[in-house]
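Workshop exercise sheet. Pairs work together: one partner reads the sequence aloud, the other fills in the structure field after running the prediction. Swap roles for the next sheet.
Pair: D.N. / O.F.
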Amino acid sequence: MSSQSLSFGPFTLDARRGNLMRDGKPMVMGNKGILLLQALLEARGEPVSKADLMEAVWPGIAVEDSNLSVQIAALRKMIGPSPAGTD
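Structure field:
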């Protein structure tokens, strides 16, 4: 992982430590989710291919495409709408 912090909305990803904060409070997130989120944030809004995401999360390992789908679904659930329900 890189040594940078990446922020979006109320979230900050500390890529060096591999943790995610929401409004300064730590969130429990697995390593694969951290790697996936980091790859998406580092793209800065540009599209990221499935192959690039697979390589970022499972470098050099052949895994089923469904693993990526599961990680994306978990990430969406974790980030979810804002507490106020406005996102």
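Discussion prompt: Helices lie at 31-42, 50-57, 65-79. What would you look at next?
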